[in-house]
Amino acid sequence: MEKALLKLAKQLNAFDEASLMALWEKYSEAVQRFEPSKRWEEAVLVLSMIQGMRFKNQLFNHHWAASREAGGNVPATGPSLVPDGPREAGPAPAPQPAPAGATRDGSARPAGGDGGGKRGKLLRLTPRED
Fold it and tell me: What is the DSSP annotation of 18-72?
């Protein structure tokens, strides 16, 4: 199973965030219209993969900016932006904007696009009260 997940991660990492974000609206709308079907479950997984790519790029930019500010003398470990394990139900923390900076390939744009494209929105998923 781990090999399959790593293969999916490698495939996802081959896409750029801007291309994935172009699909954000389509899948966020599909997720908001709940239906007990495989199609809805797959839409949730696609949306989470898009969010995962965005999170990866924001985390990369955060660490890149921190290492640039400290002149490269930042240890590999630091404050964790990733939770240690499953969280209790409750409001999610507000998303942090990605700092502007260079990417792994040395370009001057933030990882994931030109920064001027359409931004995703935070979906509030709450159970219906019937």
Answer: HHHHTTHHHHHHHHHS--SSHHHHHHHHHHHHHHHHHHHHHHHHHHHHHHHHTTT
